[in-house]
Design brief:
Low-confidence stretches: 4-79, 488-525
Number of helices: 7
Largest sheet: 5 strands, antiparallel
Distance between the termini: 60 Å
Radius of gyration: 26 Å
Shape: globular
Number of strands: 29
Mean pLDDT: 82
Length: about 700
């Protein structure tokens, strides 16, 4: 955050009046939430904050050139707890002197989970400067390209508070807040259509101004929403008081609406979107509060209380938060399969800073009593700066700073926990850092005690990335990233290419493809199958064995089948062609610019195209690495088998209603006994289909035509 002294004092005064201290003033909460805070006798004490102006930097820096990096690979899907690997530094600037990088944001590309983009407030331009730098990786976070945010001309000299988001079709958006003299202050958003390698110039959000602070952006990635792909950015407008506003974009970030009217808040307005298109902005007042919009962010309803909060105290070696500051920042995640929500924050109601959360399973109408998230069994543990995000399968992933190895101090590790039941229960916390960080180290003198007010986590396709401010070097702050994968290890990139980034691009956007498929029955010869991860008691064992022996599917060089991996469009094309026994037919090819002659799946894609069971996109691509969903798979199988549409007894699933795009295909597949749903009555049509699931469905279809 780039809060100035005047704005900090205004926010502090409002928070003090409401009972919620700012940056570690440990005052009890008395808000109107139904779930009361702990008695005052249990609360810690703190000292009022004194400080200096935050944004008084040195001269405008000279930019460092970006470093080209490489790679690409395939995704994984969840089994249990992810296996986290090495920690990697994302900022590539020299370490002497070790200038600060902090407050990172990160997002994973849903179309390629080895492509991840992070951004942070970065001091590399010179002592006490602040600039928004973007860090992009295409090899699972091992190596990183660094580049300055591509601001539109005549921008202010300094910038801060970046936010990274991906759309479900792979467009990356980075939001930044330029400020200061020498140009036009106010929020800008830049877009990338190549995974964060190059960006278009930033687009200014109307109404944002020199008094704008802590913005957050959210992308509506719900096809069920009437505002599908709309972008929302909420922000504090301290020039108009302690209030927040929101702008939205309906054209993929090319232009933005005027801001909404003002709504009272203390800090941290964060927009999230539900599957029906409702927009909820959560924020801090006298506790956690939200307002709802049912018209795509044009207007918002009355404030609704979520939970009380108590401002978290800092550890004893940071008495009164005099070295590094701390806040009760509420972070919100949404289960995209059903709209359930989890909000986390650091809370001081026990006298220590601990991670609390609340959950809603009815779209925010009601919220659970605040409870500790995966509590530590070590006395005097401090936990700060949590973040939570849900992946496409509805698994919630949470990370935070935790000092249990050095309790009662400012020496932290990053810990992780996940929930597979919308926050009802959480896994035991696990450490994901390979070295500790002392948050007292490396804070620039003009940053008003900010060691970085937040960290971030992102997850998709069985890949989980955490990002945080790290001081393991001992002489400054860096941004580090860790990647976790499910199912026995870390996938290795299948190919690499050298990328030379350029400053600007002209984004183009395309619609979703239509898949159309097949029919026939293979001849199977009994054989031995020895995949180490396919056991006789697995639900997919018989299907995998059958298709393997028919030569339809194969495994990996390490003896695994990886049944929980997602399946791409190209892979499914190969399975269908082999299952049908079609000879390779590349007549007229190549038909797609991204499946050239000689590529791995060229023959199968061309054969499928010439049998009229697949089509591409309007830009001439096939996008072979995009994942196949359960609904798309149902359509392909139904068409392949030549079954007439049969909706007898439907709808059988609450999330595939009559009239929806795949209704007829899902009902037909269900009535033929090749697909089933979940215990809660859903089908989860947008979930990715795994290798194991596809094996079962193809097997059932071809053996029971």
């Amino acid at each position: 955050m780039k809060l100035t002294l005047r704005k900090w004092l205004a926010a502090s005064s409002l928070l003090a009046a409401s009972g919620l201290g700012l940056w570690g003033v440990a005052a009890p909460l008395t808000g109107s939430a139904a779930h009361a805070a702990a008695p005052a006798s249990q609360l810690g004490s703190g000292l009022p904050v004194t400080g200096q102006q935050v944004r008084r930097e040195s001269t405008i820096p000279t930019w460092l050139g970006p470093v080209p990096l490489t790679s690409h690979a395939s995704p994984y899907n969840p089994l249990d707890i992810p296996n986290f690997g090495d920690n990697h530094r994302a900022n590539t600037d020299p370490q002497s002197p070790n200038l600060a990088q902090q407050e990172p944001s990160i997002s994973i590309n849903p179309t390629n989970p080895l492509n991840v983009v992070a951004s942070a407030k970065d001091e590399r331009g010179g002592t006490n400067t602040k600039q928004t730098w973007i860090y992009s990786s295409t090899d699972g976070g091992v190596s990183w390209l660094n580049q300055i945010f591509p601001f539109a001309p005549s921008v202010s000299g300094f910038s801060s508070d970046p936010v990274v988001n991906f759309s479900d079709d792979g467009i990356c958006y980075v939001t930044s807040l330029p400020y200061g003299s020498g140009g036009a202050p106010g929020i800008q958003v830049a877009a990338s259509t190549d995974g964060g390698i190059t960006f278009s110039p930033g687009v200014h959000l109307p109404g944002t101004n020199p008094n704008t602070d802590k913005e957050w952006t959210w992308v509506d990635n719900f096809p069920s929403s009437p505002y599908y792909h709309r972008l929302y950015t909420s922000w504090m407008d301290f020039g108009s008081g302690n209030v927040w506003r929101l702008n939205y974009s309906s054209d993929r970030g090319a232009s933005w609406s005027q801001p909404t009217t003002t709504y009272a808040a203390s800090q941290f307005p964060m927009p999230v979107v539900l599957p029906n298109g409702d927009v909820l902005v959560t924020y801090s007042t006298s506790g956690v509060t939200y307002r709802r919009s049912t018209d795509g962010g044009v207007t918002f309803g009355n404030p609704q209380s979520v939970s009380s909060q108590s401002s978290p105290p800092c550890p004893p070696d940071n008495s009164g938060c005099g070295i590094w500051r701390l806040s009760a920042l509420p972070a919100t995640g949404v289960d995209r399969t059903n709209g359930s929500m989890v909000i986390t924050w650091s809370d001081g109601r026990t006298g220590k800073a601990l991670i609390y959360y609340t959950r809603s399973t009815d779209g925010g109408a009601t919220w659970s009593v605040a409870a500790q998230l995966a509590p530590s069994s070590v006395a005097n543990t401090y936990q700060v700066e949590p973040w939570v995000e849900a992946d496409e399968n509805g698994i919630f992933h949470a990370i935070w700073y935790d000092d249990r190895e050095n309790a009662n101090t400012s020496i932290f590790n990053i810990y992780y926990s996940q929930s597979t039941d919308d926050g009802a229960t959480w896994s035991d916390a696990v450490r994901i850092t390979t070295a500790t960080s002392d948050l007292r180290i490396g804070i620039p003198s003009s940053y008003n005690r900010a060691a970085g007010d937040y960290i971030n986590v992102t997850a998709h396709s069985g890949n989980v990335y955490g990002v945080w401010t790290d001081t393991r070097a001992g002489n400054g702050e860096d941004v580090y990233v860790v990647r976790g994968t499910y199912g026995g290890g870390t996938p290795v990139p299948t190919r690499t290419r050298t990328i030379t980034p350029t400053r600007t691009i002209s984004p183009t956007y395309t619609a979703s493809p239509t898949n159309t498929p097949v029919a026939s029955t293979p001849t199977v010869t009994p054989c031995a199958m020895n995949f180490s991860d396919v056991n006789p008691n697995d639900y997919f064992y018989e299907a995998v064995h059958y298709l393997y022996c028919a030569g339809v599917i194969s495994g990996y060089g390490d003896g695994t089948f990886r049944p929980y991996n997602n399946t791409t469009r190209a892979q499914l094309t190969k399975i269908i062609v082999l299952a049908e026994g079609w000879p390779i037919d590349t007549t007229g090819g190549p038909h797609f610019s991204d499946v050239p002659d000689g590529s791995t799946f060229y023959g199968y894609v061309e054969t499928a195209y010439n049998h009229a069971i697949i089509s591409g996109y309007g830009d001439g691509t096939f996008r072979p690495d995009n994942n196949v969903t359960r609904a798309q798979l149902s359509k392909i199988i139904v068409l392949a088998q030549g079954w007439p549409i049969d909706t007898t007894g439907g709808p059988h699933f609450t999330d595939v209603p009559e009239g929806s795009t795949f209704y007829g295909y899902v009902e037909t597949a269900f009535n033929h006994g090749i697909v089933t749903g979940y215990g809660d009555g859903t089908f989860r049509p947008d979930n990715n289909a795994t290798r194991g699931q596809i094996s079962v469905i193809v097997y059932r279809a071809i053996t029971n035509p």
